[in-house]
Here is the input.
Amino acid sequence: MPIDDLPPDVRATAAVLARPQPMRRGSLGERFMKCGKPTCACHRDPDARHGPYFVLTRGVEHTTRSRFLTPAQADVARTQVARAAGFREQLEEYWQACERWADTELEAAAADAGAAKKGASGTRSRRRSVKRSKRS
Here is the structure.
């Protein structure tokens, strides 16, 4: 199908999706942790824990993969995760536009079928009688 025949909403969302950009699945979180020194204040006071440590987390093949990041990397990853969220929203818009387009095709096919003469299928099959057993 030529691109000129596409519905405008499908063409617009496809154009947005076609622009590549760095993005990342998963989420970015901050962790505050206890250290290995038993005399450190972080063991007694939860507010004295060490951090924040930035962690990028993502599910891969039924497991969770985590990766620690520096603060500079966390800023970049935060932007990438936000881009991915926007991409998913635009992808959903694209799906909805394509489904509206598909519904239009279905309605057109139904209208074409309805335009054909009803009852033009020829002879109807005969109804057969049900055989009864000899015992009844």
Summary: The chain has a mean pLDDT of 85. DSSP finds two helices and three strands in the chain. The CA atoms of residues 113 and 121 lie 13 Å apart. The first strand starts at residue 27 and ends at 33.
